[in-house]
Amino acid sequence: MKEKSGKAALLGLLAALALCLSFLENLIPPLPLLPPGAKLGLSNLVSMYAAGSLGLPAALFLAAIKGGFAFLTRGVTAGCMSLSGGLLSSFVMWFLLKKTKTSLLLLGVCGALAHNLAQLCVAWFLTSSAVAFYAPFLLLFGLGAGILTGLVLKLTLPVLVRLERYFLS
Q1: Is residue 62 exposed (0-12), middle (13-18) or buried (19+ Cβ within 10 Å)?
Q2: In which band, very low, low, confident or very high, does the pLDDT at 2 lie, cut at 50, 70 and 90?
Q3: Distance between CA 60 and CA 48 in Å, rounded?
Q4: Would you say residue 134 has pLDDT above 60?
Q5: 10 with 167: CB under 8 angstroms?
Q6: What is the mean pLDDT of the chain?
Q7: Which one of 85, 88, 142, 151 has the fewest beta carbons within 10 angstroms of its own beta carbon?
């Protein structure tokens, strides 16, 4: 029973961390020469960690929480884009972690590219095929953001593992 309640508490803490990172990231002004709405994806660090340590259901839960937060704070379009990107990237990262021996850098890049692909598909559905113009920019930005999130996860992983041990021991 303690493991179940510990996992629920850890998941709640990770959800709060993801929402805080998402909120803080929204405070960063848009960077010049980037596609509209492009973000570093710092809250995806939490999903990356959850996909590897807690499993797919936990990672998908966190993606849904982040999508709901985007819906409440930035509207329907942002919520749909966040949810679609978060769900696809969580699945891709979980798959890579379970089926391959991928590095955290490659994991971050694949997660970022999957996120961008899902968001591009939603934007295409909501607007027109003209959004395909953003694909090369999103590819380049996804590579950079993915490398960054992979590096940050590598640096913060020891703290997250200690936190997990505390809640699950």
Answers
A1: buried
A2: low
A3: 11
A4: yes
A5: yes
A6: 89
A7: 151
